[in-house]
Write a structure and sequence with these properties.
14 helices; 12 strands; single chain; alpha/beta; seven-stranded mixed sheet; binds pyridoxal-5'-phosphate
């Protein structure tokens, strides 16, 4: 990817900084399948503590971390409830069904604006005539929901719904760091609401690889087995855990800068009537239903000018800010977008 291109497709495109590479190069390592990699063990303990849980498990990707967690809380032939736009049912290639035998049922996509009463009404009890519900999954922040942040009060209500129906509550927290920075909710406050979480180091935090499953010691022991079964046992992976530890130490609070850059982009495109919802975090969701350009046409025109954006649907697109786009790049992106949208 030439450096002259501004890449706003995703926050997964970041490259490790020199400091992060140095931490990786000097990491102490061992064979983590034997439980002997001290850097991985330290990362797992650190992340568990951040969320106030007993344990955590390093996984190669956010998708695997989610799927391990879902297998922990939903037995085969039982049901998961989530929203229709959730990453776990949109981009994980049917893994819950394929690997966990899990049946998924969705509430209509509303991003972060979840109505807990709607979720409560969907719960199906044990019995021989319907698939029993076992867990609810939410996404914080919500990727296809424009980086929206589920309010703490809504999460507390969902916890109540889960408790009343004896369900587990899972959080796909790939970007929980962004929610923490945007709403000022302590990570530990989020942690206490969920039975299982997946949290990602390779989105906004800028590590090249890595997510963690977070939960009780008993769950994480089972998670280790599921990870191995899925082919996710890794050896001298402290090299990657070191990048994650570096990211946690240096790249969480700076997410506020990415949110400010997203706000600038949102402000620039708003007069063209294409801003789907206000940018709450680092994602700017575009709704092109009233624009002469559809999403592919906008992406092609922007690319010709040196700007990459993501197409999510025929008339939906997305801009995502991250560590590798500085203020000067945002200035250029604003210039390109306003020129293209004005045509
Ligand atoms: C909300 C959310 N969850 C999970 C994932 C999966 O992460 P990975 O690409 O590491 O599998 C992503 C990836 O973008 C995501 O946006």
């Amino acid at each position: 990817m030439p450096d002259s291109l501004i890449d706003l497709r995703s926050d997964t495109v970041t490259r490790p900084t020199p400091g992060m590479r140095e931490a990786m190069a000097t990491a102490e390592v061992g064979d983590d399948v034997y439980g002997e990699d001290p850097t991985v063990t330290a990362l797992e303990a650190e992340v568990a503590a951040l969320f106030g849980h007993e344990a955590a498990l390093f996984a190669p990707s956010g998708s695997m971390a989610n799927q391990i967690a879902l297998q922990l809380v939903v037995p085969p032939a039982h049901e998961l409830l989530c929203d229709a736009d959730a990453h776990v049912v949109t981009y994980e290639i049917g893994a819950a069904a394929a690997y966990g035998g899990i049946s998924s049922r969705t509430w209509p996509a509303v991003g972060a604006d979840i109505d807990p009463d709607v979720v409560a009404a969907m719960v199906r009890p044990d019995g021989y005539f319907a698939v029993p519900t076992r867990a609810i999954a939410v996404e914080q922040t919500h990727n296809r929901g424009g980086g929206g942040v589920i309010p703490l009060a809504t999460l507390r209500e969902l916890r109540r719904v889960a408790d009343e129906a004896q369900l587990a509550l899972h959080c796909d927290g790939a970007r929980i760091w962004h929610a923490h920075v945007a709403d000022g909710v302590p990570l530990i406050e989020y942690g206490r609401l969920f039975d299982t979480m997946s949290v990602c180091l390779s989105k906004g935090l800028g590590a090249p690889v890595g997510s963690l499953v977070v939960g009780s010691a008993e769950k994480i022991e089972r998670a280790r087995l599921i990870r191995k079964r899925m082919g996710g046992g890794m050896r001298q992976v402290g090299i990657l855990a070191a990048a994650g530890r570096y990211a946690l130490a240096h790249h969480v609070e700076r997410l506020a800068e990415d949110h400010a850059k997203a706000a600038r982009l949102a402000e620039a495109v708003a007069p063209f009537g294409v801003l789907a919802t206000p940018a709450r975090t680092n994602i700017v969701p575009l709704d092109l239903t009233k624009s002469p350009l559809d999403a592919h046409a906008l992406a092609a025109a922007a690319r010709d000018e040196g700007l990459l954006i993501s197409v999510l649907g025929p008339r939906t697109a997305r801009l995502v800010t991250h560590m590798d786009v500085d203020d000067a790049a945002v200035d250029r992106a604003v210039d390109i977008l306003t020129r293209v949208l004005r045509r």
